């Protein structure tokens, strides 16, 4: 009778432990699946952003290789589009006796445009500072993402019952409990 009760208690304890472990594994697998989807989404966003950046930089580099004239500089420059007074291009006449090289182009900037040009330069500097901060943040986020992935992988291993050695030790523990229970039951049954 006592042996049967002990066996029943050990069996109930074992089933309860197995159920808790099984539920924990299911919960961890579900959470890991959701985290994996979020991580993959973030990686895709970063990949798309990098591709867009490369495309835009390539376009800018192509523009940089094109020859530039004073007139083209004035018409193409976005910064100069909102000036109070338009810039003027003066071309020295070919038969000019002035100090300018004949055919040379000069850009004349009206004084009212000085503040707008200076403010545009300051905005450019401000954007450069912000861009550097964004790059640093992106690198930081990349490191955080790697750490999160490593942490997720550790949780997956834990949800599966740990490493191979950890599971082997757990199996050995249950084997020892079962063997010990069997010995006690056997001893109690033959002790009569």
Written account of the structure:
By secondary structure, the chain is mostly helical. The protein has 2 domains: 2-66 and 111-190; 68-109, no CATH class. It is 75% helix and 4% strand. The chain contains 4 helices and 2 strands, in the order ααββαα. The chain has helices at residues 2-65, 70-76, 114-159, 164-190, and strands spanning 88-91, 105-108. A two-stranded antiparallel sheet has the order 1-2. α1 (2-65) runs antiparallel to α3 (114-159) and α1 packs antiparallel against α4. The chain is rod-shaped. The mean pLDDT is 78.
Weakly predicted, low-confidence segments: none
Number of helices: 4
- Strand portion, in percent? under 5%
Q: What level of helicity do the residues show?
A: over 70%
E-strand count: 2
Structural class of the helix and strand makeup?
Answer: mainly alpha
Question: How would you describe the shape?
Answer: rod-shaped
Number of domains: 2
Q: Radius of gyration in whole Å, from Cα?
A: 38 Å
Q: Describe the main β-sheet briefly.
A: 2 strands, antiparallel
Distance between the ends: 12 Å
Mean pLDDT across residues: 78
Major beta sheet, strand line-up? 1-2
Instruction: Give the SSE order as H and E letters.
Output: HHEEHH
């Amino acid at each position: 009778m006592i042996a049967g009760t002990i066996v029943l208690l050990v069996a109930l304890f074992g089933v309860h432990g197995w159920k808790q472990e099984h539920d924990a594994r299911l919960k961890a697998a579900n959470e890991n699946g959701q985290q994996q989807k979020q991580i993959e989404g973030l990686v895709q966003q970063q990949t798309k952003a990098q591709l867009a950046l490369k495309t835009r930089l390539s376009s800018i580099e192509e523009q940089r290789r094109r020859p530039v004239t004073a007139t083209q500089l004035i018409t193409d420059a976005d910064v100069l589009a909102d000036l109070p007074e338009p810039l003027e291009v003066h071309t020295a006449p070919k038969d000019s006796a002035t100090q300018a090289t004949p055919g040379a182009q000069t850009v004349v900037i009206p004084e009212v445009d000085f503040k707008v040009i200076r403010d545009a330069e300051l905005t450019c500097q401000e954007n450069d500072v912000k861009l550097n901060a964004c790059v640093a943040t992106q690198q930081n986020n990349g490191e955080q993402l790697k750490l999160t992935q490593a942490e997720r992988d550790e949780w997956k291993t834990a949800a599966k019952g740990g490493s191979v050695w950890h599971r082997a030790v757990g199996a050995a523990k249950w084997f020892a409990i079962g063997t010990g229970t069997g010995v006690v039951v056997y001893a109690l049954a033959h002790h009569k």
